[in-house]
C-alpha cells in the first residue's frame, strides 16, 4: 500500500507538476508515519484457545480463540491445524479485542494440535503490517474409530464365560414357561400343582470377570489394530467386565467405570506400532496381531479377524497357533 502511494506521487508529478507531488508526498508521509506508529506502538497481542473435548474421527468440535491487546488494532489471523484436523473457518480478520469461534473436524486418530495463532497486525489504512505468533497451542485427542462387534459369536461366548450368575437366594416362584432351565424347576412345589410346573427365580448377582487384551502391530496396521482393541475392549467393559490392555506404548490395569474407558481410549489415541513382552502376551485372554493390513484376534484359542468380527461372521477358523507377539496374521477364509 505504501508503495502504491509512491507510484501515485510519481504519476501526479508527471501529470500535474511538483506542487501536486508535494501535496501527495506530505499526505503519504503523514499516513505512513501514523500507520507505523499505530502498529509499532501497539501492545503485543495475546491469544487464548479453548480446550475442545476429545472425540472420534468424523466428530466436529468448536474452537474458540480470544485475542486481546491494544484496542482497535486490526489482525488477520490463521490458526494452524495438524494434518489430523480440518476446518474452513480457522482463518479470520478481527479488530482487537475479539473472540472468534470456528468448527474443526476430527479426521485422524492421535494427539492433534491447534495453534499457536499466526497473526498479521495492520493499521487502519492497511499501509503497515507486522507478523507475529501468539498464544500457546492446544491439543485435541482423537480416539480410534470404534465399530459394533456385538454380533460376534466368539466375543459373546467369552462374555458369557466370564459372567456366571451366583445362584444363592430365591427371589420368587413362578409358572414354568418353555425355555426355562430344567434345573430351575422346584419339584416339591410343582408336585402340589400338577400338571403345572413351578420354577425358582434367584436374586442373582453376576460375578465380575476380567479380560486382558494384548496387541502387537506393524506401522501399516496400527490404525486398524487400535480400532480393534477399542471396539473389543469397550464391548467387554460396557458389559460389566474389568478390562486391562497391554499396548506397545503402555498398559492399563483391569478396572471398571467410564473413567477407565476414557483412559483406555486416550492410551489408544497415543499408541504407535510395536511389540510387547512375552509374559504379557502369554497372560492375555485376547491377543491381537496387526500385520500387513490385517488384524487377527485370538480369544482364548478361538481365532478370527477383526474384519469378520465387525461383519458378525467370525466363526472359529482354527485352533490358536499364536506363540508370541510376532506371530503373523491369519487370513480369513
Automatic annotation (TrEMBL):
Chain intervals with Basic and acidic residues compositional bias: 308-325
Matching InterPro entries: DUF58 (IPR002881)
Region of interest called Disordered, as start-end residue ranges on this chain: 308-333
PANTHER family found in the cross-reference section: DUF58 DOMAIN-CONTAINING PROTEIN (PTHR34351:SF2), SLR1927 PROTEIN-RELATED (PTHR34351)
Protein name per Swiss-Prot or TrEMBL: DUF58 domain-containing protein
Boundaries of every DUF58 domain copy: 173-275
